[in-house]
Specification:
Layout (H helix, E strand, L loop, with lengths): L5 E7 L3 E7 L24 E2 L6 E6 L7 E6 L6 H19 L8 E7 L3 E8 L4 E8 L5 E4 L6 H4 L13 E10 L4 E14 L2 E14 L12 E4 L13 H7 L7 E6 L8 E5 L11 E4 L7 E9 L10 H7 L5 H7 L1 E5 L6 E3 L1 H11 L19 E5 L2 E5 L1 H4 E4 L4 E4 L1 E3 L4 E4 L1 H4 L2 E6 L4 E6 L3
Parallel strand pairs: 8-13, 9-12, 18-25, 19-24
Antiparallel strand pairs: 1-2, 3-4, 4-5, 6-7, 6-15, 7-8, 7-11, 9-13, 10-11, 11-12, 14-15, 14-26, 16-27, 17-18, 17-20, 19-25, 20-21, 22-23, 26-27
Length: 447
């Protein structure tokens, strides 16, 4: 992945994982049981807070400024017999899963895992082999476990058997992707990739992993692989991205796709529709330009709280003032950027801005926690993206864990330049991605 922000896989309840992108190389390795490995240094020991099975954090740093936390969940401890039963149940589910058809039409259903990530299903080859994947607007490659991969992360998931497909074509190309706490390497091939029952890419390049580190093992990774929705400019290995293949093969009724991510508290999952979008949102969509030809990024001009005049985005006023005399193209290059990312579990941005936002609402700048009793007095935050305002209500930017009674903000400091608007933001907005026009449309999700 060419994007400087990298992936981190953290744990979530029920033995599944959260997909989070980070730009910091200090991420700690998780051991085979999903517990942070003790990579102890004199002043940099990871600290786990909370009860097993409940929401927890790893805190990096020595207690001074500059620390940050990673939200995670620890799974309940299991004895060998429980683990055996879980493996047996997993095999049963995998067999049952392989017999289920893909979604009809051009809409793929997405499963919501505790608001931390969403995954759907694709089929590769002829006869088709099914896989569960995260549909990710923050990357541009497809990869699934390969048959020859000996890693536990591969053997625990469905693996692509290329010799079983009559339409598979091998390639001498190989791929390596280093994530925040994960790594995959594999071989590139091409085959038909079916996204829904009526939508198939006839000749799509994808990677079959031959190595996956423990980050992608069960129980933390329920999904088999990734399906990148970015442009070819963001693809590793010199391959064409799936969305560009869709354009090249002219299989979309309209050159776009739309995504809905419902909150778990609303008993919702999600869906992605290719070639059209929900017409009931047409009059409400606010369209913004995509910057560049890598991922679904746009300019970011400010962050405001309630009706206050202060711009909380660090240095935004200086940047906006300096770019006033520039051409639109120059102004876009000079401004901050924000990526709409369906593969990220939180909102990530520069530490200066997020610290100021936390202070303003009374949240702890180190832990992100805020008294739940304060939620009723909070006001919305307004994000200026592509010159348009998009708001998040307090119950959208603060996560309330009913199991522990803890409330905490849904953002984390990572990068000074690039902001990542992850799942908490995207749950608030129905998003339409116009591949040909390089635009994104956002409309308030209907409840």
């Amino acid at each position: 992945m060419k994007l400087s922000s990298l992936w981190l896989l953290a744990l979530v309840p029920g033995a599944v994982c959260a997909v989070v992108k980070l730009g910091d190389s200090n991420a700690q390795e998780l051991d085979e049981d999903g517990i942070p490995a003790i990579l102890a240094q004199a002043s940099n020991d990871p600290t786990i807070i909370g009860q097993e099975g409940a929401k927890n954090h790893i805190t990096f740093g020595d207690g001074s400024s500059g620390n940050f936390k990673v939200s995670l969940f620890l799974r309940d401890g299991m004895d060998p017999e429980s683990k055996r039963r879980r493996r047996k149940e997993r095999r049963r589910r995998m067999k049952s899963f392989a017999e289920q058809p893909l979604s009809n039409g051009t809409t793929a259903a997405l499963s919501n895992i505790r608001d931390y990530y969403y995954y759907g299903y694709i089929a590769i080859g002829n006869p088709p082999q099914k896989f569960s994947v995260v549909f990710d607007t923050g990357s541009s490659n497809i990869w699934v476990p390969g048959e020859a991969c000996p890693s536990d992360a591969c053997t625990q998931h469905r693996r692509f058997i290329n010799r079983a497909s009559t339409t598979f074509r091998a390639s001498p190309q190989q791929i390596q992707i280093q994530y925040g706490t994960g790594f995959i390497a594999g071989d590139i091939g091409s085959d038909s990739v079916r996204v829904t029952g009526s939508l198939a890419l006839r000749n799509q390049s994808f990677a079959m992993t031959r190595l996956e580190d423990k980050t992608f093992q069960l129980p933390r990774s329920q999904f088999d692989g990734l399906f990148g929705l970015g442009f070819t400019g963001g693809a590793e290995g010199g391959v064409r991205s799936p969305v560009d293949t869709m354009m090249r093969e002219k299989i979309l009724t309209q050159p776009l796709f739309g995504i809905k991510l419902f909150r778990g508290s609303e008993n919702g999952n999600g869906e992605i529709t290719f070639g059209s979008f929900d017409a009931s949102y047409a009059s409400q969509l606010q369209w913004i330009d995509v910057y560049g030809d890598i991922f679904w990024a746009t300019t970011m001009e400010g962050i405001f709280y309630g009706d206050e005049p202060r711009n909380y985005l660090y240095n935004a006023d200086k940047i906006n003032a300096a770019s006033a005399s520039m051409t639109p193209a120059q102004r876009a290059r000079a401004s901050r950027k924000a990526l709409l990312d369906t593969g990220s579990s939180l909102i990530y941005g520069d530490p200066f801005t997020l610290a100021a936002m936390s202070v303003r609402i009374g949240a702890d700048t180190m832990t992100g926690e805020i008294p739940c009793s304060a939620l009723g007095a909070l006001k919305p935050f307004h994000f200026i993206l592509g010159g348009r305002r998009f708001s998040m209500a307090p119950n959208e930017y603060v996560f309330h864990d009913p199991a522990t009674g803890v409330c905490e903000v849904q953002w984390m400091p990572v990068s000074e330049y690039l902001w990542i608007m992850g799942i908490p933001f995207l749950q608030s907005y129905y998003t339409v991605y116009d591949i040909k026009a390089h635009k994104m449309g956002l409309a308030r999700m209907k409840r």
